[in-house]
Specification:
480 residues; two-stranded antiparallel ribbon; alpha/beta
């Protein structure tokens, strides 16, 4: 027997991964019944009570939408226009380098006065009039807060539970804990879009949907807006589907031999990814062909749905993915970073994203899917209630990053509809009632999916990690 340290390390890796890995391999070799049994085992391990949600659609608005201008109504700010933010309110809060040296921090009210929407009387900006029309279906949280002050750390914190890259993302945790309910599509799919003006410089980093230190088969699969929806999905010229099948069979046999020798769990990932890619050659083209949708559905998502790669088109594809069993669908849209173009760009962003976001909720509801689909809309933090730059310049001013409070909305499975939760102070600068930290928010999402956030863990480098790190409390007041 080979008892070298290298062999023993690989043997330990193999033993640790043997149950999920062998189940995954067996599902590929033996068909649907074995896969279903493997998924049931994973579900029984991860789900600790009956889930309200079977799937999640995250509409991540990168760049940080302004809570002051959109969802957190503060009419008193109009009386404070131009007045300096009081030191007693700021309370030493650090600012970014973009406003830290401003001589004054002049208060800036919402661009447009809010209006009342729905039977619940939700006050919202008319820039979000379509979202206003579903006000009775959504829960608005105005008391979110985070420690992050810059975009990449903020998004990373929101999606992985840490500001430093390297942790598994929310979708990867769900894939790992709950498995997939689709035979022909990944458990975790990501789509990206951005404002057509390219008004801000936020980048989409792979670790926003990465698997961190858990097996890489759980990372998000990115669907593209141009070319093949998934890179390298099409066969090269001259390669038939039968030829591809033969090549994959040979590769699988060689990988199985290698796995028997070294026990590396990533070999199992390679096998499953090759097989999923083969099945996706048939499922993805059908999925992304929206010409089969009736005209009234296309109209509901707005004219931009016809443009490949748009947020509107991604919202429609998200609904189609949800119908086909994808567990986590993450849409990321950049363009909300309005430091000096708030008067012009905010309205453009709302026009591009408001209608399709509301249409997605309506579409799910009319199909009876909203009751077990959780939809979330929001960014990585908010914007300052004081202005950046010269607020008297009607076209050239904006707002800086602000993590002390911001707003998001949720709809669907297990969430109380038509309510507002949490409250900020009169300056929209600090949380005044019912604070909801990023870790609390993550714990609540997992709870709605039937998962105790303290029990879904993965052992790495001598400790057990979880999405919420060592923090987080379920926000029970928003649960139906």
């Amino acid at each position: 027997m080979n008892d070298s340290p290298h062999f023993l390390k690989n043997r330990r890796d193999f033993i640790k991964s043997s149950i999920p890995a062998s189940a995954a391999l067996a599902s590929l070799l033996n068909g649907d019944s074995t896969q279903a049994a493997a998924e049931d085992k994973l579900l029984s391990q991860a789900q600790h009570f009956a889930p309200k949600a079977k799937r999640i659609i995250l509409l991540m608005q990168g760049g940080a939408p302004s809570h002051v201008d959109l969802l957190d109504w503060k009419p008193g700010l109009y009386d404070m226009y131009g007045q300096n933010l009081p030191d007693s309110v700021r309370n030493g809060q650090r600012l970014t380098t973009m406003t830290a040296n401003q001589k004054e921090l002049p208060m800036l009210p919402a661009i447009k006065k809010f209006e009342s929407y729905g039977k619940c009387g939700r006050m919202m900006s008319p820039l979000l009039r379509h979202t206003g029309e579903i006000a009775d279906d959504i829960c608005v949280i105005n008391s979110m807060h985070t420690e992050a002050i810059n975009h990449a750390p903020g998004v990373t914190f929101q999606l992985t539970g840490a500001q430093i890259p390297g942790r598994p993302s929310l979708g990867a945790w769900l894939s790992y804990g709950l498995g997939s309910s689709s035979e022909n599509l990944p458990a975790f799919v990501v789509m990206t879009s951005r404002d057509r003006e390219n008004s801000c410089g936020q980048l989409f980093f792979d670790y926003y949907w990465g698997s961190g230190f858990i097996p890489s088969k759980h990372q998000g699969v990115q669907f593209r807006g141009t070319g093949d929806p998934v890179m390298y999905l099409s066969n090269p010229k001259g390669v038939s589907r039968d030829m591809r099948r033969s090549v994959l069979d040979d590769l699988k046999a060689m990988n199985e031999i290698k796995h028997e020798e070294v026990g590396d769990p990533e070999i199992q990932t390679r096998i499953s990814q090759y097989e999923m890619a083969f099945r996706m050659q048939m499922s993805v083209p059908e999925l992304t062909d929206i010409t089969t949708e009736p005209q009234h559905i296309l109209d509901m998502y707005g004219p931009d749905v016809e443009r490949k790669g748009s947020f509107a088109r991604n919202c429609l594809i998200a609904r189609r993915l949800a119908e086909r069993g994808t567990r986590c669908i993450q849409l990321m849209h950049a363009g909300w970073d309005q430091h000096n173009n708030l008067p012009t760009q905010l309205e453009i962003q709302c026009r591009d994203t408001d209608q399709p976001s509301a249409a997605l909720v309506r579409d799910l509801k009319q199909r009876g899917m909203l009751e077990d689909t959780l939809v979330i809309w929001g960014g990585e933090f908010g914007r300052t209630p004081f202005g950046q730059g010269d607020i008297k310049n009607v076209k050239k001013h904006g707002r800086d990053h602000h993590g002390r409070c911001f707003s998001i909305w949720m709809a669907g499975a297990g969430v109380k509809p038509g309510i507002q939760y949490g409250k900020t102070d009169d300056h929209a600068f600090n949380v005044a009632e019912n604070p909801v930290h990023v870790h609390d928010f993550q714990a609540t999402i997992l709870h709605l999916l039937g998962i105790d956030h303290e029990k879904l863990t993965y052992r790495f480098q001598g400790r057990r990690f979880r999405l919420t790190d060592v923090h987080g409390h379920v926000v029970k007041d928003i649960l139906a």
